[in-house]
Design brief:
Layout lengths: L2 H15 L9 H10 L13 E9 L10 E5 L5 E5 L5 E7 L4 E6 L1 E4 L2 E6 L1 E5 L4 H4 L7 E9 L2 E10 L6 E3 L4 E6 L13 E3 L5 E7 L5 E5 L2 E3 L2 E4 L3 E2 L8 E8 L1 E2 L9 E4 L19 E4 L9 E4 L7 E6 L2 E6 L8 E2 L1 E6 L6 E6 L5 E2 L6 E4 L11 E2 L4 E6 L11 E3 L6 E2 L9 E6 L2 E6 L12 E9 L5 E11 L6 H10 L4 H5 L1
Parallel strand pairs: 1-9, 10-19, 31-38, 34-37
Antiparallel strand pairs: 1-4, 2-3, 2-5, 5-8, 6-7, 7-9, 10-11, 10-14, 12-13, 12-15, 15-18, 16-17, 17-20, 21-22, 22-25, 23-27, 24-25, 26-29, 27-28, 30-32, 32-36, 33-37, 35-36, 37-38
Length: 499
């Protein structure tokens, strides 16, 4: 041990041996004494190093696992790996003071067959309850049990109809398995989740051969009633075998009422969570538990731009039609006020938050030779060049349908139709082509900007409003405007030119 740690105890022993009587020590002296014994000041010494040892066992049969891998990070942040001996034992020494996290993993190889084991993560510290108060480093021992992923279970879920008492299979319900051990690591989440089939049956493979597993099933809706079942503790599973746990019945949840009267929709899932990337052309519909009246019906959908909605009721289904595509990339909150057709009961539903749906991008520009990031980008254009813009969908083939608007911020606006037409345009599948005419060079100088703002339409019915494109204009020296300017400023006679 370092001399400075032993110096104080030796002094005290010496004093006792010589017959000194020490009735009290000052608080200041004790503080210096404790500081001298601090482990943290000697972390670089052997005194601050500790050992971690134990066994890695097969949880299914209690046998030691030879060649199991143990990995951790040392004080330098470097990964260190150790393996277990033939009996599954391990010994790791010279560990730095403090807590460390160890990962245990193993794969059994039998010829061409391999059986993975579920890994575990264990965090241990260099001090225990009794030693930590004195800063004493203690050795740690532990037994880690790894489970082979070769077990399976099967079973079926049913409910009883409260009115008829008949047994009804739970169809399409989410079923999953969890582990009570928090150190357990699930490497393959797909093998721990499934759904019941049309007969209410389910089956799992690749589960850990271990105890402490829980079987879970999501709440199930049937005839406006909700059925649930608490997590079920599974019996200990055996390696390389599957256990049939039989039939279980979900219980009617009388304490929970369904938050909505909507049982189906094309803009929400069954859990009332709104979809993302809904097409702006989609006509939202909502299916209620019973038929609703079209009288005194109120429907509102919030959005960034004005559009008219036309609610249409067909039995138990409400269709929210609209006179134009919904705004793109917009979240919509839907409010519905309706009355049931049978009992004239008032229903008010607000679908906001997670129940709101969001539209996709709709029609948008993909690339253009007017953009710097395009590999065929042109810094400037003249009348001999063709500008093009590629869109996300096939455009309506009639170029006359394109609307040309004033290009804000450009020195000259390009129009391909109407009285101010100074360019021609055509469409090929998803691309718009624009070629300027000579008239756009009138009174232009090099460096002037030109641009066009268009509203284009796709074959699907989507459209993009006021898409703006700008670039610089090249005025060739031989253009009429430049030539006239040169002739007016510097007259040249035929004789001087001959010279």
């Amino acid at each position: 041990m370092p001399p400075r740690i032993l110096s104080l105890p030796r002094f005290l022993i010496c004093c006792v041996n010589k017959g000194y009587r020490m009735y009290k020590l000052s608080a200041l002296f004790m503080a210096f004494a404790l500081a001298a014994c601090s482990v943290t000041e000697s972390e670089s010494d052997d005194y601050s190093k500790w050992e971690f040892s134990g066994y890695v066992l097969d949880a299914s049969n209690g046998k030691g696992l030879s060649g199991a891998t143990i990995s951790y990070q040392n004080s330098d942040g470097k990964s260190v790996t150790a393996t277990t001996a033939e009996d599954g034992s391990f010994f790791i020494d010279k560990l730095p003071y403090g807590s460390l996290t160890f990962s245990f993993s193993y794969t059994a190889v039998n010829g061409k067959d391999t059986v993975p084991y579920a890994p575990k993560v264990v965090t241990v510290g260099s001090t225990n309850e009794s030693s930590s108060m004195h800063g004493v480093v203690a050795s740690i021992s532990d037994v880690v049990r790894l489970s082979p992923l070769s077990a399976g279970i099967s079973g079926e879920f049913y409910i009883r109809d409260p009115f008829s008492g008949s047994a009804i299979p739970v169809k399409g319900a989410a079923v999953w398995v969890t582990h009570q051990d928090t150190s357990y690591i699930n490497l393959d989440s797909k093998s721990f989740g499934t759904k019941t089939d049309s007969l209410g049956k389910f089956k799992f493979k690749g589960l850990p051969a271990d105890s402490g597993l829980l079987l879970n099933i999501a709440p199930y809706a049937y005839k406006d009633m909700r059925f649930t079942l608490p997590a079920t503790v599974l019996p200990r599973l055996a390696a390389s075998s599957s256990k049939d746990i039989g039939r279980a019945y979900l219980q009617q949840d009388t304490l929970v009422t369904l938050p909505f009267r909507i049982k189906a929709s094309n803009v929400m899932d069954s859990g009332q969570k709104g979809y993302k990337d809904v097409s702006p052309l989609t006509v939202p519909y909502f299916v209620f538990n019973e038929a609703i009246s079209d009288k005194n019906l109120g429907v509102n959908m919030s959005g960034d731009s004005a559009f008219t909605i036309i609610p249409v009721v067909k039995g138990d289904t409400l269709f929210v039609k609209h006179d134009r595509p919904l705004p793109a990339s917009t979240e919509f909150t839907t409010t519905i006020v309706a009355y049931t057709k049978k009992g004239n009961e008032r229903i008010e539903i607000v679908l906001d938050g997670e129940s709101a749906f969001t539209t996709g991008r709709g029609l948008y520009t993909v690339t253009s030779n007017m953009w710097p990031e395009n590999e065929h980008y042109r810094a400037t254009f003249s009348v001999s060049d063709t500008m093009w813009v590629k869109f996300s969908e096939t455009l309506a083939s009639n170029a006359e349908r394109i609307q040309w608007h004033y290009a804000n911020g450009a020195d000259r606006t390009i129009y391909a139709n109407g009285y101010y037409a100074n360019a021609k345009a055509w469409i090929h599948t998803d691309t718009l082509f624009v070629q300027m005419q000579d008239t756009i060079l009138d009174s232009r100088t090099p460096g002037d900007t030109v641009g066009f703002s268009v509203t284009v339409y796709a074959k699907s019915g989507l459209y993009l409003e006021n898409a703006l494109f700008k670039t610089e204009l090249v005025v060739p020296p031989s253009s009429s405007s430049v030539a006239e300017e040169s002739s007016s400023s510097t007259p040249i006679s035929s004789s001087s030119s001959a010279d």
